[in-house]
């Protein structure tokens, strides 16, 4: 072999080991000894490929492996077409978003019963219904609501798989999906107030009207922001943009959840008059910092570690905000328009979560048209980056909702 080939192989090896290491880090989890004759192994080998894939995507294999060491499980496995074609595409997209992994897990666990349920016992006993593995779900499964098409399809010593016609959707998951959809349609028609700029200070004119700062949680988190220090500008904007605070309060009191990416005072001070003077601009900026999900620093950090880059919906439709792991923290946005999560969990009450960031974020479309924006692709790409990209595509494509 000549030198060139060695060089190429070395590069390949280097790239492979780097990415291999990343991969290992991502999936490294101590796993209990699993019997090759287990119903779980059988599921992964079975013709229920859609279900198997989702179980893996939902990170359920490990907990299920632990479960079958303690008790049998019965899996009601929807046929592939039910998961592939019959599901509402919007619902399926919802399930596959990284932020909704709990919903995906709950949906899958709703198809599993922590006991050995033979087909005959399922049908011959009256009132024989079964609690599922889906946490918090009171609805039980019984022979009547299951629509079994392949009874006792796979029988193993630690469990049974029955093929079913349709996907079973637990109420809690349907509810989460409905909430999300409603939130989208509400936020699509939010009224746009026209803010005023004070010509002397070039800052937003303070609204003289007394503020019914929305429902208590919104008031609480604004107060927490003020107490925390370093977030006065944002708190002022929220207080003074009454329609926004009221809207947030209303949404939260109706059961929606929100994550506020809160730019600190230094970041807010960098906003120019131009950026604020367009009618509705402050609202637009704020809506881009509101994520219609409840995320804590931990949940976001875990997601970016697992998925690399991902996108969160914002209330500024249809724009999403990109997040990725950087320097042991979560970084939002692109290049110079990016911001780090610097003050985690400033406020978290289960409905509203406030995460402090060190920059004001703009949708990438806005950055592109901004006069002094740097090119989005830096010139410091490493020589093997193409191969690296190729490998990361290969390794990461098992993930959900790849950054695109
Ligand atoms: C599963 O069910 C079989 C058959 O009833 C039983 O022999 C076995 O002990 C059960 N496994 C566990 C882990 O309970
Ligand atoms: C399930 O069975 C229990 C008793 O075994 C009964 O009280 C309950 O009503 C049943 N639920 C359904 C939905 O059939
Ligand atoms: C109506 C209202 O609460 N306006 C507030 C706007 O922000 C200033 C702080 O700069 C507050 O003092 C005002 O009370």
UniProtKB/TrEMBL annotation:
Residues 35-168, 218-346 form the FAS1 domain. InterPro entries: FAS1_dom_sf, FAS1_domain, FLA15/16/17/18. Its main location: secreted. Gene3D superfamilies: FAS1 domain. GO terms for cellular component: extracellular region. Residues 1-20 form the signal peptide. SMART domains: FAS1. It is found in: Secreted. Keywords: Glycoprotein, Proteoglycan, Repeat, Secreted, Signal. May be a cell surface adhesion protein. Belongs to the fasciclin-like AGP family. This is FAS1 domain-containing protein. It comes from Solanum lycopersicum.
């Amino acid at each position: 072999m000549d030198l060139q080939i060695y060089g190429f192989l070395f590069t390949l090896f280097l790239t492979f080991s780097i990415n291999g290491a990343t991969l290992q880090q991502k999936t490294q989890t101590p796993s209990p000894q699993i019997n090759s004759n287990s119903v779980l192994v059988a599921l992964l080998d079975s013709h229920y490929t859609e279900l198997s894939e989702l179980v893996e995507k939902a990170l359920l294999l490990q907990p299920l492996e632990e479960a079958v060491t303690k008790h049998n499980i019965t899996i009601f496995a929807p046929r592939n077409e039910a998961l592939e074609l019959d599901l509402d595409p919007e619902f399926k997209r919802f399930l596959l978003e990284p932020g909704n992994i709990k919903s995906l897990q709950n949906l899958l666990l709703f198809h599993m019963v922590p006991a050995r349920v033979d087909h005959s016992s399922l049908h011959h006993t009256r009132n024989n219904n079964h609690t599922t593995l889906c946490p918090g779900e009171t609805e039980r499964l019984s022979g009547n609501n299951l629509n079994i098409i392949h009874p006792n399809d796979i029988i193993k010593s630690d469990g049974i798989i029955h093929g079913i016609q349709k996907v079973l959707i637990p109420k809690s998951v349907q509810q989460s999906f409905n909430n999300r959809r409603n939130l989208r349609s509400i936020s699509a028609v939010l009224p746009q107030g026209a803010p005023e700029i004070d010509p002397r200070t070039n800052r937003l004119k303070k609204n003289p009207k007394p503020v019914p700062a929305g429902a208590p949680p919104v008031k609480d988190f604004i107060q927490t922001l003020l107490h925390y220090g370093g977030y006065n500008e944002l708190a002022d904007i929220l207080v003074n943009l009454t329609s926004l605070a009221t809207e947030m309060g209303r949404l939260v009191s109706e059961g929606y959840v929100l994550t506020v990416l809160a730019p600190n005072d230094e970041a807010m001070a960098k906003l120019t008059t131009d950026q604020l003077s367009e009618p509705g601009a402050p609202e637009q900026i704020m809506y881009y910092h509101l994520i219609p999900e409840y995320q804590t620093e931990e949940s976001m950090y875990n997601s970016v570690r697992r998925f690399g880059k991902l996108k969160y919906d914002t209330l500024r439709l249809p724009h999403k905000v990109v997040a990725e792991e950087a320097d042991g923290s979560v970084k939002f946005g692109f290049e110079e328009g990016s911001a780090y999560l610097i003050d985690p969990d400033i406020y978290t009450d289960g409905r509203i979560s406030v995460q402090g960031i060190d920059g004001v974020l703009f949708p990438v479309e806005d950055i592109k048209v901004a006069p002094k924006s740097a090119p989005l692709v830096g010139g410091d790409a490493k020589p093997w980056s193409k191969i690296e990209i190729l490998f990361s595509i290969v390794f990461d494509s098992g993930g959900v909702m790849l950054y695109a």
